[in-house]
Amino acid sequence: MKPFIRFTVSCLLLSFVFQGVDAQDSLQINSSSKSNFSIILATDYGKLVTTAAKLDSRYEFNLGIQFTKHIRFTADYGYAQLSPSNAIENGIYISTGNYYRAGLDYLINISPKTHLSLGSMYASSAFIDEGTVEIKSEIWPSLNERFERDGFSANWVEFVLTSESSIFNKETGFISNLYWGIKVRLRIMIEKPTPEQLDIYAIPGFGRTFNNLVPALNLFAAYKINR
Amino acid sequence: MQKLILLFGLILIINGCSNCSDCEPFAEEPFIKIRFYKIADSTANKVVIDSINHVWAGNFEYFQDTVNTYQLPLNMNEDISKFILSYRYVTDYTSSYSNSMEVNYHRTFLKRTNNTIIVKSDIISVSSDFSNTPNLLCADSLTCNSNEAIYQIYR
What pLDDT shows up at residue A86? Predict the structure, then answer.
């Protein structure tokens, strides 16, 4: 729990700093009277494509609530069934579970319909794993071992760089609020289970566990609801 | 912002090392080594194993190490392996001998660096009807890892 509290306090402090930056900006630029509050609903279409192509089974939904011109709260929910092909050379490995993320983004408007943002998120995953191992023997019956383990959880933080822009260059109407973009994530593991015998090779939401520092890329489509 | 993107890119490039924690060089199938010695002067006793558990030994790959050393694969489905060995001495091909041995061990799984899962066996005891009190030597003083254990047979 300590890492989560530390992360929350860090985010709050960061938001106060950025609020200050926001206030300075508003002194220099005559901001319009239009409210900055908006709700953004998004999905990771890259994951949907991999699911449709039957490479993996994954989906992810995102909620963003923008409070000020520069600050946005973000929350993600996702599900993944990961089966990395080379996790076990002489067997099969499958990791299945749900994951959640929450954090804050600092937005920079490049143009009225294009934004860059930098944020951090705290993430948690609850998952199970299973698999089989096969070892051939010439003298004894070959070993076909099946394993199934449950009740795992892992926590990590992410630093996220987001680039998003309007899909259609329209000022009004439904399609004017459609966005797409790309997220570059850097995930840093805080804690993960360490079972006695076989390692955990993949964690839903985090990916492969060969390293505690993992980069990732997300493609997303979003709809922005302005107040 | 450009500097931030560059920083992200740099971190992604640097992020190339892995931290494998449980990689040890074991054979995929656990085994015990048996080594034949002459009781008179403790030199190598050259032996040809004809069959293991009544199966012609020529069917098995990699089981012969040197002229007096053999690697017997252990059963990965149980904590016990029983062997019946039929063999001859190189100096006298006409006489054939048969002895049995029993190996008791604990099994655990391990992962190699190449992501292959293997079975490691820590040998607890070996018993046999070879004459002249054979020795079990372990390279590791704490455990007797199967591929480090040598069963010495003096005849």
Answer: 83
Cα separation, A215 vs A135, whole angstroms? 33
As a whole number of angstroms, the distance between CA A104 and CA A120 comes to: 6
Cβ atoms B135, B114 nearer than 8 A: no
Asked if the model's pLDDT at residue A139 lies above 60, the reply is yes
pTM, full prediction:
0.69
Q: Where are the domains of chain B?
A: 22-154
Q: What is the CA radius of gyration of chain B?
A: 22
Binary contact (A186, B61; C-beta < 8 A): no
Q: Are strands B150-154 and B31-37 parallel, antiparallel or unpaired?
A: parallel
Reported ipTM: the value is 0.72
Nearby residues of A201 by Cβ (< 8 Å), 6 or more positions away: A84, A87, A88, A93, A95, A129, A208, A209, A210
Q: What are phi and psi of A117, to 5 degrees?
A: -145, 150
Which of B6, B26, B115, B121 is most worth mutating to test chain A (most A CB atoms within 10 A of its CB)? B115
Interface membership of A137 toward B (CB under 8 Å): yes
pLDDT digits (tens, 9 = 90+) for B119-138: 888 888 888 888 766 677 77
Residue A214: list chain B partners with CB under 8 A. 15
